[in-house]
Structures are given as structure tokens and as C-alpha cells.
């Protein structure tokens, strides 16, 4: 349901939740390759390729060379940066409206629990990666 609401917010910008995820990851990481993005979002490389193609068609992404000539790093274009800022404001307002009914202490406790769950999952994944 959350992604449906975000899709509705992003529709006027010709975006959807999955395209927003790509923009968000690129912005958070200061740029990354498609492979890094697929791993981070835990989705297939062809899925990322489709999203990158759509965002490139919207002039939101720029491909830059890396040391490995087989891979290109993706960064947000100036237009992509502007679009990211506009959409961030909309999404932030939406999220604030959702949590406004909760007490600050309850929110902080929930954030703490989610962070511990993420840490547990990351440790489990590291253990799996080392076992391979």
C-alpha cells in the first residue's frame, strides 16, 4: 500500500517507486554501477537495466567512466538532482503525515527495533558470504 501511495505522488514526475529507488540509491551512494545497485536493492540486473534505461530517457542519469571499462558509474544529472529534491519534499511530507499520529517515543523505539533487525540481517548475510 505504501508503494501505491508513493506511485501516486510520483506520477506527475513520470516516475514510480522502482525508479525512485534507483534514484535514491544513486544519490545516497554518490553514484554507483548497475551491478552495485542490483545487489543493494536485491533485484535482478535486467530489472535494474530497465529502470536505468527509463531514467536515462528522462535525462535523469549520467553514465560516467570507471577504472573498469566494462562498467559505467551512474550519477544523477543536474536535472535528476532537481527532480530528486522535488520528489523528496513530496515523499517527506507524505511520511510525516503518516507518522504524525504516533508519539515521538514510540517512533524512536520502532526505529531502534528496525535498526537492530537490519543489523541482524546484515550479520547473517556476512556470515553466509564468508561461508561461500
Automatic annotation (TrEMBL):
<keyword id="KW-0238">DNA-binding</keyword>
<keyword id="KW-0805">Transcription regulation</keyword>
<dbReference type="GO" id="GO:0003677">
    <property type="term" value="F:DNA binding"/>
</dbReference>
<keyword id="KW-0804">Transcription</keyword>
<dbReference type="InterPro" id="IPR036390">
    <property type="entry name" value="WH_DNA-bd_sf"/>
</dbReference>
<dbReference type="GO" id="GO:0003700">
    <property type="term" value="F:DNA-binding transcription factor activity"/>
</dbReference>
<dbReference type="InterPro" id="IPR000835">
    <property type="entry name" value="HTH_MarR-typ"/>
</dbReference>
<protein>
    <submittedName>
        <fullName>MarR family transcriptional regulator</fullName>
    </submittedName>
</protein>
<dbReference type="InterPro" id="IPR036388">
    <property type="entry name" value="WH-like_DNA-bd_sf"/>
</dbReference>
<feature type="domain" description="HTH marR-type">
    <location>
        <begin position="1"/>
        <end position="119"/>
    </location>
</feature>
